[in-house]
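[Q] Does anyone have a clean structure-token version of this?
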Amino acid sequence: MLPVQAGFGEPLALLLAASAATVRGKLRSVPSLHFARCALLGPPGAPSELLFATTFDDEAAAHLAELWQHAGPELAAIFSHCSGWRAPATLDDFTRFLERGACPSAALFTAFDALGVERVRDDARLRRELARFLDAHATELRELSPLEIGTRAQTELGVAKASVTAPSGRSPRERPRLAVAAWAGLTLTGLRAALADVIDFVRELWLDTSVRLERAPGAGSTAPLGAQRCFSHVARVKPGRFRRAALRLALRALAALSFAATAAGGSEGTRSILAARWVLLDDGRLVFLANHDGSLRAALGAFALRASALVGMVWSQTLGFPRSFGWFAGGARDELGLAAFAAAGELSTPLWYSAYPELGADEMRANAEIRALLAGDLDAPGAARLLALVRD
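[A] Here you go.
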């Protein structure tokens, strides 16, 4: 989170829009970078803060060095609109500048933790090569069984044994679970939250202070890249020590559940999400950043259908979220209200990047499974699954 110099907000917004294609071209050379974005916070035309976020492999120091090496001049031009930037800058200046504004992610989810950037791209190339092989030999392969076809494909494509180690060094099989004490704390907090929701509802009726949502001007205009879109959102935590404490507890639980979902390659509520993170700022704002495929309405609908309690226990602590009583009644189950809440808090994101914009989340998972099947000891069910994945 980087403060914008007074009077530099509008020039920064124009620069981000004008330089988006150039910056994306430079970022394409950064080996560790999955996703990046620059979002603007503050009034339209005069933003007061620049949010710069990246999702990357390995260590932060190495990642920052790659960013500076491949996109240093372009990023320097952007950051020169922010307070505290030194020009001319060195890698050390760049690193210190970003470290000063760095905010920890309260929870982070990615579609598949075991896949680095190059592996995702290689998996997509392998699927295309397999499809070309099947098309080129369609006549002769038609007479063979799925297992014989799969064995031929293994020989022709020569796939190396698939790695099972995540970029972070963790095994993707690690799936932490919440302890009994954590579940008990969440249950008690949920009951207290339900009571607080009733009190808030009565107070709003008595004082007529209900929040009226309006779409943020200038938001929602981010163009898709290939199959993907990005969503940047900010909400303010409701006043009171209890709401902040409840949110912190919910985010701790969400962090463990997100890690488990990442290790498992996703869950039903996150089928269209490639990456998502929550960041709680010191001033009481909750930032949500996501990269997804398909429409935002569809992604929110999946949340409402499959993970309404999870979404509710976090966002119900913020102003403007659909009326809820506890984490299960109302809230995220109100699809129209959830869509209005998302639109009202959406941030202008004129510049964003994806290392593999043509891939959807399910396609990325399928590509990884294709590689795993080709790299393993193929049997008849595995061969049938392989051909089904290619047809899909």
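[Q] Thanks! Anything notable?
[A] The chain has two domains: 2-102, 103-349+356-392.
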